[in-house]
């Protein structure tokens, strides 16, 4: 049985840990609202961008000279997997869930005989992936110095991916991130970046539905607009993934720290009970010794 001193030291240690987890929970809660608003504000723009590209892509996809960002290279032998994660821990299973989804996809592609290249955005995902897929990791984008995610943080990542694509280093690019739904629920999400995903539509009416109920004429022309929109779309979708990850991280962190704080409280109660019982046993033993000694005299 541990001594009273050992129990007291452990109780104080758990109390110190509880203070840290409680403070971390409050910090995550304060950051969550702003991160959630930023993620929700970016969704309509990103979704509308996809719809516009769908309408434009249907018009030019079959034309000669269509952009490779739209129609691809004609093969899918080499795939770039972009895995977004957090820079810090203490956020529950947030990073593990993203990496789990990415690993399943990577294993599926490797089993199909494809070549995989991994680009990590965030140190935690890199740490988890390098154990099993270290040989496939080509780069790590460290955003630990960024306090507030902005579009300027997504642009360099998109520029590097586009440059690799132009050099013919991969055929398909897929992004993994966690879509924020609530503080309790974050959904690991897979999204194809390159070539731009083109849903199958059968007629102009379905194209109109994709664009919100109208058919548009574009000036100067679909091909010219796509030349500018396709690279921008890559940056927009990466930016959206970063914002979703930021909100998901804070939600997961708040939930994890709340659970840790409550678990610490329960452990303190149990240790305090053991401490009091041990202390009572020591006092009783001392009293018995005193009474026994007095009777002997």
UniProtKB/TrEMBL annotation:
Signal peptide: none annotated. Gene3D superfamilies: 3.40.1380.10, ATP synthase, gamma subunit, helix hairpin domain. This is ATP synthase gamma chain. The keyword Ion transport applies. F-type ATPases have 2 components, CF(1) - the catalytic core - and CF(0) - the membrane proton channel. CF(1) has five subunits: alpha(3), beta(3), gamma(1), delta(1), epsilon(1). CF(0) has three main subunits: a, b and c. Its main location: membrane. It comes from Temperatibacter marinus. Produces ATP from ADP in the presence of a proton gradient across the membrane. The gamma chain is believed to be important in regulating ATPase activity and the flow of protons through the CF(0) complex. GO terms for biological process: proton motive force-driven plasma membrane ATP synthesis. Keywords: ATP synthesis, Cell membrane, CF(1), Hydrogen ion transport, Ion transport, Membrane, Transport. The gene is atpG. GO terms for cellular component: plasma membrane; proton-transporting ATP synthase complex. It is found in: Cell membrane; Membrane. Belongs to the ATPase gamma chain family. NCBIfam families: ATPsyn_F1gamma, PRK05621.1-4. The keyword Cell membrane applies. It is a peripheral membrane protein. InterPro entries: ATP_synth_F1_ATPase_gsu (IPR035968), ATP_synth_F1_gsu (IPR000131), ATP_synth_F1_gsu_CS (IPR023632). One of its GO terms (molecular function) is proton-transporting ATP synthase activity, rotational mechanism.
């Amino acid at each position: 049985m541990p001594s009273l001193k050992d129990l007291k030291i452990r109780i104080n240690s758990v109390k110190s840990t509880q203070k840290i987890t409680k403070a971390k929970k409050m910090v995550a809660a304060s950051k969550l609202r702003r991160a959630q608003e930023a993620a929700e504000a970016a969704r309509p723009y990103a979704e509308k961008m996809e719809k516009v590209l769908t309408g434009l892509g249907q018009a030019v996809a079959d034309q000669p000279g269509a952009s490779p960002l739209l129609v691809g290279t004609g093969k899918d032998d080499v795939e770039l997997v972009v895995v977004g994660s957090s820079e810090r821990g203490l956020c529950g299973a947030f990073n593990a869930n993203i990496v789990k989804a990415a690993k399943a996809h990577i294993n599926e592609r490797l089993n199909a005989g494809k070549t995989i290249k991994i680009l990590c955005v965030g140190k935690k995902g890199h740490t988890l992936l390098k154990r099993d897929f270290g040989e496939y990791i080509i780069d790590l984008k460290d955003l630990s110095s960024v306090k507030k995610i902005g579009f300027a943080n997504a642009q360099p990542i998109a520029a590097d991916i586009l440059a690799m694509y132009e050099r013919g280093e991969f055929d398909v690019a897929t992004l993994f991130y966690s879509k924020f739904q609530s503080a309790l629920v974050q959904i690991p999400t897979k999204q194809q970046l390159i070539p731009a995903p083109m849903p199958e539509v059968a007629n102009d009416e379905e194209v109109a539905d994709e664009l919100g109920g109208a058919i548009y004429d574009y000036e100067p022309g679909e091909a010219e607009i796509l030349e500018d929109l396709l690279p921008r779309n890559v940056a927009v979708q990466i930016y959206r993934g970063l914002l979703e990850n930021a909100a998901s991280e804070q939600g997961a962190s708040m939930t994890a720290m709340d659970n840790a704080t409550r678990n610490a409280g329960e452990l303190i109660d149990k240790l305090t009970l053991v401490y009091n019982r041990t202390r009572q046993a020591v006092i009783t033993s001392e009293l018995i010794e005193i009474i026994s000694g007095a009777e002997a005299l």
